[in-house]
Amino acid sequence: MSPARSDGSEESVVLIVDDEERLVEILQAYLQDEGFRVLSAFNGRDAIAIARDARPDIVLLDLNLPLVSGAEAFRAIRSTANVPIIMITSRVDEVDRIVGLELGADDYVTKPFSPREVVARVKAVLRRARPRVDESTARADVIRIGSLEIDLGAHEVFRRGRAVDLTPTEFRILSTLGTHLGRALTRDQILERVSADGDAYDRTLDRHVANLRQKIEDEPARPQLVVTVVGVGYKMIDPTRVAARGAGSL
After folding, report:
1. pLDDT in the model for residue 23
2. Of the CATH numbers 1.10.3720.10, 1.10.530.10, 1.50.10.20, 1.10.10.10, which one belongs to the domain with range 142-236?
3. By three-state DSSP, how is residue 44 classified?
4. Are the CB atoms for 190 and 233 separated by under 8 Å?
């Protein structure tokens, strides 16, 4: 991987794959302004060849491509290198999103989109993908669980690189469960830690958790991060570390 600044931009190589030439030109201009080196391809076949030869640091890949589909190109690129890939889709239905995530995409964006948002997504994915020189030196006040990042010191939460707006109580619930990852906490234990301002009581805890799930879960009705432990309370799990086994009742 190319040398880069701490924000993941300078010297990093981005491969943009989309058959809309004007869109590629716009993204290229924005990314170059941020210090990226940009390569481009307008069909899946060329994308595979360029990715193989140039070894980009990250790929922006449209699902709907000529010659070779985006899904086929994705599999071919990933078969030779574990490069981060952000999928681009022109449809807002669930099919493209499910396909992108099932393939193992690191993120996805839906057209039309803001070029600045795409640049921010690229930087966020690169930050997550870059290995740390010494994991022990990572800040102890930052918790990473799946696609979630909880910065205890800055009182901020990011989901797939995007800021999540939580209430003070929601943040305290999340940070409490996050610092006890995998451990079931009783309702009393949670309330003891989060009701400093008197805004969380036993009868409202479930509502706070439900609101929190709406903001951090892909499917709030079937939570994968904050799960209910029947007869006990709640616990937080990392779905990327838990294979296909039941990790608590929902």
Report:
1. 93
2. 1.10.10.10
3. helix
4. yes
81-96 burial: b if 16+ Cβ within 10 Å, else e: eebbbbbbbeeeeeeb
Q: Residue 80 CB: number of other CB atoms within 10 A?
A: 11
Q: Please, are residues 39 and 75 in contact by the beta-carbon 8 Å criterion?
A: no
d(CA 220, CA 226): 9
Start-end of CATH 3.40.50.2300 domains in the chain: 13-129
**pLDDT tens digits, 105-122:** 778 888 888 899 899 989
Which tens digit of pLDDT belongs to each residue from 144-191? Answer: 888 889 988 888 899 888 889 888 888 889 999 998 888 999 988 888
